Amino acid sequence: MNIIGHTLQGLALLANLLAGAGFLFCSYSQYLSPVAHPVLSCAGLFFPFFLFLNALFLLFWLFVQWKFSLVPFLFLLAGWGSIRSYAPWGHKEEAEGKETLKFLTYNVMGMPVEKGDSVNPIVEYIRKSDADVVCLQEYPVHDEKIRKALSFYPYVETFAVAGWNGMACLSRYPILSVERIGYKSVSNGSFLLRLKLDKDTMAVVCNHLESNKLDAHDKQVYEEILKSPGEKNVKSGGKYLLGKLAEAAALRAPQADSVAQAIVGNKCRYMLVCGDFNDSPLSYAHRIIGRGLHDAYIEAGRGPGFSYNRNFLYFRIDHLMVGEGFRVLEADVDNSISASDHYPLWCVVEKL
Questions:
Q1: Secondary element (H or E) of residue 59
Q2: Quick one: which of 26, 196, 289, 307 is 20 to 30 A from 33 by CA?
Q3: What is the widest separation between alpha-carbon atoms in the chain?
Q4: Where are the transmembrane segments (predicted)?
């Protein structure tokens, strides 16, 4: 190989090392405190970009200089856990004859009804879901018509958060108690419920953590970046949007800490922790809340499972976790309904 070839190969190897370092940083950014490092803690959002780069380098070296393919392979191996969290490849498990339950979490965006609809599509979706426990976020707490429409569930608790915005838990099991988990937020909240699960007690934690608060102007900035991805546009718009995301992440971190403390303080064999975390599976909030729990989608879902689906933004920010008393059989982000800016997330578990 001539000097030019060696030089190009060396530059490609250097670029691979930089891409690998970025990949690992994104993979493990969930261990950074968003309060201390708000911007850096958002690195997980760039994970798919660096994953794609390292996959390309792996293919490149296999065709150009196969020995160097070990470099991207080792990077991917070091971030394997994050790859599995971001885009799992789970499969359906067969029940072993024990009791099964279905859980559903859904940010319903106020449960809107299109003009001309005779029934609310979200109400009908919940009815047909046949879920045993349903947790709803952005639920219209003062809408008596909606509440009556959901009366096919014998036990219903609603929680006002701010104005019309609230949350609800629909259950086929008796709700023994409800308490709010204390943390600072103007328009978000988390609630702990105890349900009577036959002879056992089940703890349910329903969450709607701090929103990223991307308004119409912010979404316009994002769309402009996609339409005209020039250096100046990406640099100025990207810096602005990253600042907003970092600010929200710093607010979510203490909320996640409070939820995690409540989980530890009320730990029991049968637990369900779910809701709109407004954060990805590679985030501080997901990691700190999920300690000691099983993420149902990671265990039985397939692919990235984007649950937020508007304005060219696609992320899995809704999560569903269960305790050691449940074995996850199935899980899915259901994109068959588009009545909200989120898709519902559900799982089927077997009681151990």
A1: helix 47-64
A2: 307
A3: 78
A4: 12-31, 43-63
**Which is it for strands 200-208 and 189-197: parallel, antiparallel or unpaired?**
antiparallel
> What CA–CA distance (Å, rounded) separates 317 from 300?
17
Pairing state between β 165-171 and 133-140: antiparallel
Q: Annotate 192-242 with DSSP letters as a single string.
A: EEEEEETTEEEEEEEEEPPP----HHHHHHHHHHHH---HHHHHHHHHHHH
CA 179-182-186 angle, 5° bins: 110
Domain that holds residue 154: 100-213+240-351
Q: Is the pTM of this model over 0.90?
A: yes
3-state secondary structure of 121: helix
What is the number of domains present in the chain? 2
| Phi/psi of residue 248, nearest 5 degrees | -65, -40
Backbone angles phi, psi at 129, to 5 degrees: -65, -30
Q: Say which residues have a Cβ less than 8 Å from residue 24's Cβ, sequence separation at least 6.
A: 75, 78, 79
Of the candidates 20, 86, 4, the one whose C-alpha atom is nearest the C-alpha of residue 57 is: 20
CATH number of the domain enclosing 301: 3.60.10.10
pLDDT at 292 over 60: yes
Same domain? 140 vs 70: no
Closest CA to 159 of 131, 132, 187: 187
